[in-house]
Amino acid sequence: MTSHPGLLLPLCTSSASLALSAFQFPLFLAFLPKHPSPSHHNSSRSTKPTSSASLTGRPLSHFWARFLVPGAGLVVACAATSTLAGALSARWLAQHGHLETTEVARWYAYGSVAAAGHFAFAPAVIPLIRRMVGRGEEVEDREDEEVAVENEKDQGRWFVWHTVRTVTVDLAAVVCFAKGVALSLWIV
Predict the structure, then answer these.
(1) Residue 111 half-sphere exposure, CB side, CA atoms within 13 Å?
(2) What DSSP line would sit under 133-155, residue for residue?
(3) CB neighbour list of residue 57: distance below 8 Å, 6 or more residues apart
(4) Whether the Cβ atoms of residue 108 and residue 69 lie closer than 8 Å to each other
(5) Can you tell me the distance from the alpha carbon of 136 to that of 60, in angstroms, rounded to the nearest whole number?
(6) Burial annotation 32-58 (CB, 10 A radius, 16+ → b, else e)
(7) Are 129 and 66 in contact (CB under 8 A)?
(8) Alpha-carbon span 115 to 173, nearest angstrom
(9) Which of 20, 44, 83, 170 could anchor a disulfide with 115, C-beta 3.0 to 4.6 Å?
(10) What phi and psi, each to the nearest 5 degrees, are found at residue 93?
(11) No. of H helices and E strands in the chain?
(12) Residue 187: is it exposed, middle or buried by C-beta count within 10 angstroms (0-12/13-18/19+)?
């Protein structure tokens, strides 16, 4: 039996999803203000964000508004392709199965479940992103500092969920698919 090239697809797309997730850390950290170190607490500089010192306010809101559709589209495409390709690979291995391919099929199934797990975090992050985007669309009657403080809090919460998602499901999907590919190269 020869190896099926489709068995590589879930590893490729889940790796792309993990790479996108990793890229979002420095991208969005650039918007957060740099807090002074403890040795600078006695300085005369304020630790509160200001519109000139921080991009956390309306600039972050406007960036999220423009980034959301293409960024989320790419992430959804990668996660959905990983999920579907992993499930189809598991099914293909099970149908062409013998004792060895049954275990390989399990790794693809585990990876598919992990990739689908990416979508489970949507209810936690969508409200945060909507609030940040909404603050950029509000009438200019709110102080920039107030918007910056609120966006900084929501962006911080987004980072927590993003980190948990990256480690628990995105990384797990890559590991499962990599194990499946490694095993399939030996037996298929």
Answers:
(1) 37
(2) HHHHHS-TTS-HHHHHHHHHHHH
(3) 49, 51, 135, 144, 145, 147, 148, 151
(4) no
(5) 8
(6) bbeeeeeeeeeeeeeeebeeeebbbbb
(7) no
(8) 5
(9) 83
(10) -65, -40
(11) 6, 0
(12) middle
Are 79 and 11 within 8 A, CB to CB? no
Residues counted in the chain: 188
Q: Residue type for 187, please?
A: I
pLDDT tens figures, 97-152: 665 678 889 999 999 999 999 999 999 999 999 999 988 877 666 777 888 889 89
Give phi and psi for 153, each to the nearest 5.
Answer: -65, -50
Structure pTM? Answer: 0.81
CB 122 within 8 A of CB 47: no
CA–CA distance, 175 with 111 (Å, rounded to integer): 8
